[in-house]
Design a protein that fits this description.
By secondary structure, this protein is α/β, with parallel strands linked by helices. The chain has two domains: about 200 residues, Rossmann fold; about 100 residues, Alpha-Beta Complex (UDP-galactose 4-epimerase, domain 1), CATH 3.90.25.10. The chain is built from ten helices and 13 strands. Strands 3-2-1-4-5-6-11 form a seven-stranded parallel β-sheet, with helices on both faces. Strands 7-10 form a two-stranded parallel ribbon. Strands 8-13 form a two-stranded parallel sheet.
């Protein structure tokens, strides 16, 4: 296996991937980013302009093939590339399965051919569905929508490559990552992107339900630290849940952001609480969250202009974007 200080980061111009790139460069790695800039943004890497240790390839992961030069001599592969918006997956299941599952297989084969020393897969806690909390890694798998299924299939492929081909793989099931550079895509998506654009426009926050639902928000630099540790550990074949272990109500987020609220219907198939049991990841990787929710939100507000070009959602446009979700998820 190749254990060089060379890393490939797929989706490395995206939200979490770009923070992993930051950390790897700080630690002296040569970093090769693969991103088709559908979800990622070049500005996320602009502060590294001129760094000879950073290389960028604009490519869809499905176009990668074993022997691709970007993987030559690679030691570690961090795989974030994929489609991350949840609601549109109901309308586009083929695309989600193609990118998130088959695309992962393409990257796995490239890593295997290159003899990578570690492959770290960015999995999703959505595989658990409406889970018991705090949620452990051995919780039953119950994906409720195509995004969740596609990410779980990608994880299963990664673990299969570990079992059959001996590729050293670890998988991290991310709960609710937040922070600077989070997505500004055109699809209706994660709460932070929606709320930040609404705050810029002086519009009310569209709170789903009564806002008492809570999410295990973990700041993105803490997420990045866990991934790099998962790439450097001697442990392989591991699955870890990753959160702060301290769920925060949506109403607390609204309080920290400051602004008026309008309530919209609660979506079926979504949990009231997400809460990661982080016993395993703290034990195995010596990792722990460092950034409080209050500090994390403060960091974001200092860079709120990043979301100025994001779509502005209101109750009517959200209802339209969520129509198919309500149709198919009513019995979830």
């Amino acid at each position: 296996m190749n254990d060089k200080q060379v890393a490939v980061v797929t989706g490395g111009a995206g939200f979490i991937g770009s923070h992993v790139v930051d950390l790897l460069l700080d630690r002296g790695y040569e970093v090769r980013v693969i991103d088709n800039l559908v979800g990622g943004r070049e500005v996320n890497l602009a502060h590294h302009a001129g760094n000879p240790k950073l290389h960028f390839l604009n490519s869809d992961i499905r176009a990668l093939a074993p022997g691709a030069s970007v993987f030559k001599g690679v030691g570690r592969v961090f795989h974030f590339a994929g489609i991350g918006d949840i609601v549109p997956s109901i309308e586009q299941p083929i695309e989600y399965m193609s990118v998130n599952a088959q695309g992962t297989v393409q990257v796995l084969e490239c890593a295997r051919e290159a003899g990578a020393a570690k492959f770290v897969y960015a999995a999703s806690s959505s595989c658990y569905g409406l889970a018991d909390t705090p949620t452990r890694e051995d919780h039953p798998i119950r994906p409720k929508y195509p995004y969740a299924l596609s990410k779980y299939h990608g994880e299963q492929a990664a673990l299969h490559w570990h079992g059959v081909y001996g590729l050293p793989v670890n998988s991290i099931r991310i709960f609710n990552a937040y922070g600077t550079r989070s997505r500004t895509s055109g699809a209706y998506g994660a709460v932070f992107g929606v709320f930040l654009r609404q705050k810029i426009a002086g519009k009310p926050f569209t709170v789903v339900g009564d806002g008492t639902q809570s999410r295990d928000f973990l700041y993105v630099t803490d997420v990045a630290e866990a991934f790099v540790r998962a790439g450097e550990t001697s442990l392989t074949g591991k699955i870890w849940n990753l959160g702060a272990g301290n769920p925060q109500p949506v109403n607390r987020l609204v309080e920290l952001l400051g602004g008026e609220v309008v309530h919209i219907p609660k979506r079926p198939g979504e949990p009231d609480v997400t809460h990661a049991d982080i016993t395993a990841v703290t034990r195995d990787l010596g990792w722990g969250p460092k950034i409080s929710f209050e500090q994390g939100v403060s960091n974001i507000l200092k860079q709120i202009d990043y979301w100025r070009e994001a779509p502005l959602w209101d109750p009517q446009s959200i209802a339209q974007a969520s129509k198919v979700w309500f149709k198919y998820m009513a019995g979830a």
